[in-house]
Amino acid sequence: MGDGKKLSSLDASFLYLETPEMPMHVGSMAIFRLPDDYQGDFFEEFKAMIASRLHIAPILKARLEKAPLDIDHPSWVEDDQFDIDRHIFRASLPAPRDRATLERIVGWMHAKLLNRARPLWEFYVFEGMKDNEIGLYSKMHHACIDGGAGAALTNMIYDISPVPRNVEPP
After folding, report:
1. What is the pTM of this model?
2. Which helix (H) or strand (E) holds 27?
3. pLDDT means per 10 residues in the chain (170 residues)?
4. Could you list the active site residues?
């Protein structure tokens, strides 16, 4: 990130317009069915995969830094205290552990603001669903991602194959 990248007026407007009643983040919910013979720990494997790809999406390690006296828009700076465990969480559903329960919980979670002291994104891995399904909810502030950037980030981070592609470190 270098010395910081100042937010555009449009991106900064998402911060200025945000209120507890009107969060300005975007979210997505995906449901994956694990193979019946899957013996791994999806949460730990997912977290390790994201950690191994952080270098291709620097925004995931960037936090906001206000301009002196707030005379300008904030900047993105690399978070030297970055901890992936503050961004990727393991969650389990209460009974009946179905999609309707997942939707209610994700709706409640989506209404909560992101912590502006950290990079503005979170992933939640919901385990224990019926039929060996995993729910993956992502939340990212609109100040750091728009539709096009979101699609590009998805392509950089996720794989469509059960065998992850090799992403070289920097």
Report:
1. 0.89
2. strand 25-33
3. 81 96 94 91 93 88 94 96 98 90 95 97 94 93 83 72 69
4. 142
